[in-house]
Task: inverse folding
């Protein structure tokens, strides 16, 4: 068992097949073969051979323009490397790679690995490990990475046999990108890196169970009977709604989803992770749903009679009370690639496990061929009119007359320039929700946010990784004063590599989202969330890290001009905006609340009487 | 409700940790767990006894099936199956009701004395979990129990149905 699929070297077709290489050289060669174009990582004792091999590879294989084929991007902290790999992966759809040393290097990537798992992002983390003989001896910089990561990653390999190193690396990429994508960790003891090997040039580990399950999903098709059942039910519906999630982005199904929605004149709301699956500026886009979704999207969920979930998983930020979620829907159809998501939270009346794009295309063609043409028949005209009225009546809004800078206005001002064509990354908290609510998203992979794990400090390193994936697009990190502190060291990484990233810190002097909950549920006792006495001068910090353009904006009158100058600056730019510390995120469906109990705040119309503030039901709320 | 889940697992470093870790991370309880290599040394078979309603078991099976090392998984308790568990008990001779003990052993052909010391005996028994419980309850009334080891349940489906790894 565990025999590598043995191809005689001469038949693999790889020009280096049969070449003598060290384990470290094998690592680098497989990275090159996998099309890796940038590696994010921090060196250290147990990974030195691989770093040396990257150095030699870059020296020996300069690109036509003299550039390094495998540039090493060095963060301030390995957590940064993990999030850079994620930013690269989220923006490109390709596998991001982080390369770190053993012990603390590897454990610092636990957070981005778990974060990638929770948001289904394909990354490969290569960790050095103490030599095989030293494992288990409490050696210097030793940590049980295969145990630790087993709980966090899609898969973890501890390479115990040098002969399997090459196939293991290739398999790691395969696992990361296939099925429901995710992070794969390869723990490589130093003696394996130094082993003298013969490069094969091809071959992967046998994964009979995984590959069989993958094949079943990949080859699944919708037959005529299943299509007929779907349209039979849809034919009885008057108010269908598509609820699209991050699976549409991960599955490259945005095109098929747009075609499907357009063909049948169906409105679409997306999750936080699904933003960009459809063009949010289109009339039938209802933008985001859920805890901080638009009021009109959440009302549409309440009002729909047929819900089509595509690559979405009814998580607690969307379906806080599963039995009440989409309570008017008489039929729920669910498309996914992960069998475990079907019926996990909400029972589906119809489901399909398989490639999302192919399934949506099959259904669209079947429907059109069988005379399902709601657009021509104006079948959904009353529903569309209802939604248009919801969008008008319950539009997103805020205190436009305030003397203080409103965070929403900052987002709107940036959006007026970028118009849904820039990459936006965020930290976690209020600023994240404001960005999700007030930016336009016209394409997939422009919105990078830590959705499920909610990791503060995600925004800056993710922006760095994204800029390496998309040199052609502006990359803007919308951050909070608390979130950016988590990985503030990466400001220097931006200037070290001359990346023209724009960093916005919406400074409300504390953990705004936590304060919002404390205000709502803990009678305003701001335990440990007020940073108004903190001494940080963000602008000087940015300047110290080499930002030539670094400014603090506190006067609302200057907002449009400063934003314009900031976005237009040719190079790294840092903007701290002193915002109204009392600005809240609305609408809000409180934890454990139904959409009917949504609070819309003072500036968005509600169609229900607004509930009074609730005292904490401490244990159940999260 | 008690369920028996059988898992065929690639015999990889850390594979067992990943299965056990998934159960603890997702809050599924494990009443017993046995694992050993099968006739194919590359494949281990785990038998897990757990409990939960249909929705919980459905999630246990589906989430376990996502583990890369898992070759196949089945809820054996959904159909007719055979299960067996091994019990090894060391009892003290001081206070042993000898005649009743001999009668007890005769009533349970699955039980045998496998070792005898100056002050103790080792009794081995195999059967379903319920049989083991019944036998042990009886035995512990007749002799002081010094030590006990139970294997956890091993199980296979009845009839010609065979749990094989997918290829």
Result:
């Amino acid at each position: 068992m565990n025999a590598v699929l043995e191809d005689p070297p001469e038949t693999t077709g790889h020009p280096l097949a049969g070449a003598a290489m060290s384990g470290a050289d094998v690592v680098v060669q497989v990275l090159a073969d996998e099309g890796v174009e940038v590696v994010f990582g921090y060196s250290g004792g147990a990974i030195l051979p691989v770093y040396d091999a990257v150095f030699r590879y870059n020296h020996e294989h300069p690109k036509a323009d003299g550039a390094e084929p495998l540039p090493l991007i060095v963060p301030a902290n390995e957590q940064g490397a993990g999030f850079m790999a994620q930013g690269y992966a989220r923006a490109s759809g390709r596998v991001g790679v982080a390369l770190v040393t053993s012990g603390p290097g590897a454990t610092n990537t636990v957070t981005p690995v778990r974060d990638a798992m929770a948001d289904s992002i394909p990354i490969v983390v290569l960790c050095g490990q103490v030599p095989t003989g030293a494992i288990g001896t409490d050696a210097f910089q030793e940590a049980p990475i295969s145990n630790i990561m087993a709980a966090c990653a899609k898969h973890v390999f501890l390479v115990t046999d040098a002969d399997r190193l090459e196939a293991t690396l290739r398999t790691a990429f395969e696992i990361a990108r296939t099925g429901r994508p995710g992070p794969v960790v390869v723990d490589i003891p130093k003696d394996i890196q130094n082993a003298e090997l013969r490069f094969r040039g091809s071959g992967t580990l046998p994964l009979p169970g995984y590959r069989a399950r993958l094949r079943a999903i990949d080859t699944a098709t919708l037959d005529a009977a299943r299509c007929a059942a779907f349209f039979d039910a849809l034919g009885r519906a008057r108010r269908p709604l598509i609820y699209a999630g991050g699976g549409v982005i991960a599955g490259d199904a945005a095109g098929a989803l747009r075609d499907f929605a357009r063909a049948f004149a169906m409105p679409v709301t997306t999750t936080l992770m699904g933003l960009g699956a459809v063009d949010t500026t289109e009339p039938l886009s209802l933008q985001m749903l859920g805890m901080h979704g638009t009021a009109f999207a959440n009302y549409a969920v309440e009002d729909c009679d047929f819900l089509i979930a595509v690559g979405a998983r009814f998580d607690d930020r969307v379906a806080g009370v599963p039995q009440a979620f989409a309570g008017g829907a008489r039929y729920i159809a669910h498309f996914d690639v992960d069998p475990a998501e079907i019926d996990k939270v909400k029972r589906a009346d119809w489901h399909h496990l398989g490639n999302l794009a192919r399934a949506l295309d099959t259904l669209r063609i079947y429907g059109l061929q069988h005379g399902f043409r709601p657009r021509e028949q104006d079948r959904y005209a009353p529903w569309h009119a209802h939604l248009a009225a919801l969008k008008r009546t319950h539009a997103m809004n805020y205190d436009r007359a305030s003397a203080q800078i409103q965070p929403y206005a900052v987002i709107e001002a940036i959006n007026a320039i970028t118009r849904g064509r820039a990459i936006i990354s965020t930290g976690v908290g209020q600023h994240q929700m404001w960005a999700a609510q007030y930016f336009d998203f016209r394409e997939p992979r422009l919105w990078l946010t830590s959705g499920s794990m909610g990791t503060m400090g995600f925004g800056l390193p993710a922006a760095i990784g994204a800029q390496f994936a998309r040199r052609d697009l502006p990359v803007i990190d919308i951050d909070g004063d608390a979130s950016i502190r988590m990985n503030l060291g990466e400001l220097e990484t931006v200037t070290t590599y001359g990346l023209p990233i724009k960093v916005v810190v919406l400074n409300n002097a504390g953990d705004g989202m936590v304060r919002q909950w404390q205000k709502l549920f803990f009678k305003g006792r701001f335990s440990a969330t007020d940073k108004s006495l903190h001494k940080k001068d963000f602008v000087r910090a940015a300047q110290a890290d080499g930002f030539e353009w670094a400014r603090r904006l506190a006067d609302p009158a200057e907002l449009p001009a400063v934003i314009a100058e900031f976005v237009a600056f040719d190079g790294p730019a840092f903007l701290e905006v002193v915002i109204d510390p009392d600005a809240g995120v609305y609408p809000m469906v409180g934890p454990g609340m139904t959409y009917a109990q949504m609070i819309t705040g003072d500036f968005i119309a509600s169609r229900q009487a607004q509930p009074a503030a609730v005292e904490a039901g401490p244990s159940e709320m999260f | 409700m008690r369920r028996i889940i059988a898992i065929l697992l690639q015999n990889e470093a850390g594979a067992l940790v990943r299965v056990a870790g998934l159960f603890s991370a997702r809050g599924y309880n494990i009443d017993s767990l046995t694992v050993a290599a099968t006739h194919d040394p590359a494949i281990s078979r785990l038998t897990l006894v757990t409990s939960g309603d249909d929705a919980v078991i459905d999630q246990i099976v589906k989430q376990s099936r996502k583990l890369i090392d898992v070759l196949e998984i089945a809820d054996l308790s959904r159909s007719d199956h055979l299960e067996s568990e091994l019990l090894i008990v060391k009892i003290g001779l001081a206070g042993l009701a000898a005649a009743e003990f001999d009668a007890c052993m005769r009533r349970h052909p699955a039980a045998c004395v496998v070792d005898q010391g100056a002050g103790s005996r080792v009794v081995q028994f195999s059967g379903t979990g319920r049989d083991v419980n019944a036998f042990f309850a009886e035995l512990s009334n007749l002799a002081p129990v010094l030590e006990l080891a139970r294997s956890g349940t091993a199980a296979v489906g009845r009839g010609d149905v065979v749990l094989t790894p997918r290829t």
Summary: The mean pLDDT of chain B is 94. Chain B touches chain A at residues 8, 10-14, 17-18, 21, 25, 40-43, 55, 58-59, 62-63, 65-66, 68-72, 165-167 (CB under 8 Å). The CA atoms of residues 79 and 167 of chain B lie 24 Å apart.
